[in-house]
Structure formats: structure tokens, C-alpha cells
Design goal:
This protein is mostly helical. It is built from eleven helices and two strands. The chain has helices at about 1-10, 15-30, 40-50, 50-65, 85-105, 110-130, 130-150, 155-160, 165-175, 180-195, 200-225; strands at about 70, 75-80.
Length: about 220
């Protein structure tokens, strides 16, 4: 699959090192390269049909993003999802989401409200198909509509800085179909609060959404220990 992604990215006319970096990053974010998996330069170079140099450069950049860790005498591996890292990221995201929904209550126009309703309905439909990747992407679209409605470029930048880590956590959360119905209800609660312009209700719904995500992922981390 990574090879297909590389060939697809080639059409974007990016420098090879950027194509390799984007390909490996997507493989990590989507779970194709799993947490704790070793990243062997020779193996990856052969798999992607490139030299070791762009692989080495990509691994270095992924380490800076926190998606790869260097282990003494073992080399590079995909960063594991730790409880500490999860809590750190979600602590920041929780605060940003509260600000986001409160601003959305004031600033979302009628056209965007209709777009959010459509995204909410589409999410409910996608959940029924039980495709983890599609559900995750639909979840991202729903939250992106709310974020963009604030018109705050700095807020957009801050949230996007956490996007890579959040995508991995979303995948972990959404893997468990037992929580899908709850996710749909949480989206509906956030949507309704924004439509009503109820900032406090929207904030509480956003916090509950993050709290449930954190609790569920931590349970999964403990089960995998």
C-alpha cells in the first residue's frame, strides 16, 4: 500500500525526500506502520524503490514531529501511543475545542450551519458501514467545519499543529465499534448546541467528547500492555 501511495504522491511533482516523508507519515498516521514497529532503512528503501538517503531524512523529520523515536542500539521505530503523551495532547485539544465551539456559536453563518448538519448526518451514515478510516475522516470533516467557522487563523494553526497526533488517537478510539453510537450522539449534541447558540452547552459537549475519547484510549492502552 505504501508503494501505491508513493506512486500517487509522485504526481504532485514534489522533491523525492518530501514524497518519501509524506508517504511514511501517512503510513504511520493510518496505522499501516504500527506503534513500536521498527523502521529499517534498507527494507523501507527497497519497499519504496528509493535510496536510503531520503528514507534517513524522512525518519529524522518524523522524529521531530514525535511520530518516530530513536531507541539506543535498536534504531528508529514508530512512536508508541503513551498515556502521558495522550493526556498532554488531549489536555491542549480540550481547551482549544472549548474555545472553538464557543466562537462558532457566535460566528457560524446559516450556510455553514447547513454544512455542519450535512456533515453530522453523513457521519451517522458512515458509522453504520463500520469502516474505521472512513469514520475517522468523516469525524475530522465535522470538526474542521466548526473550526473554520471561527475565522480565527491562529486558532486554526494551533489545532492543525496537533492534527497528526489527534489522527492517530481518533483511529485508536474509532476501532472499537462499541462506542460508535455514542460518537454519533456526541456530534449531534455539539451540533445542536452551536445551532442554539448555547456556549456553555456547546463547551460541555466538546469536553465530554474529548473526555470519553481519552478514557477509552487509555483503557485500550492498558489492555495492550
Amino acid at each position: 500500500m505504501m508503494l501505491d501511495m508513493l506512486q500517487q504522491n509522485m504526481n504532485e511533482y514534489l522533491p523525492l525526500r518530501d514524497v518519501v516523508f509524506n508517504t511514511l507519515r501517512q503510513a504511520i498516521l493510518t496505522g499501516e506502520l504500527k506503534p513500536g514497529e521498527r523502521l529499517m532503512e534498507i527494507h523501507l528503501a527497497d519497499r519504496l524503490g528509493v535510496s536510503r538517503t531520503p528514507i534517513r531524512e524522512a525518519i529524522r523529520k518524523l522524529e521531530l514531529e514525535g511520530l518516530v523515536t530513536m531507541i539506543p542500539r535498536k534504531g528508529a521505530q514508530v512512536a508508541k501511543i503513551t498515556e502521558k503523551n495522550l493526556k498532554d495532547v488531549l489536555e491542549v485539544r480540550r481547551a482549544l475545542d472549548v474555545l472553538t465551539v464557543k466562537l462558532a456559536c457566535d460566528r457560524m453563518d446559516e450556510e455553514t450551519k447547513a454544512e455542519l448538519l450535512k456533515a453530522c448526518d453523513e457521519f451517522a451514515g458512515v458509522v453504520k458501514k463500520n469502516d474505521t478510516k472512513d469514520i475517522t475522516e468523516s469525524d475530522v470533516r465535522f470538526h474542521d467545519i466548526i473550526l473554520k467557522s471561527t475565522g480565527n487563523d491562529r486558532l486554526l494553526q494551533l489545532v492543525n499543529n496537533l492534527a497528526e497526533q489527534m489522527y492517530r488517537y481518533r483511529l485508536e478510539y474509532i476501532k472499537d465499534s462499541a462506542y460508535h453510537d455514542r460518537l454519533v450522539k456526541e456530534h449531534e449534541a455539539i451540533y445542536q448546541a452551536i445551532i442554539d447558540g448555547d456556549k456553555e452547552k456547546a463547551a460541555k459537549a466538546a469536553v465530554l467528547h474529548i473526555d470519553n475519547q481519552e478514557k477509552t484510549i487509555i483503557e485500550h492502552l492498558h489492555l495492550s500492555d
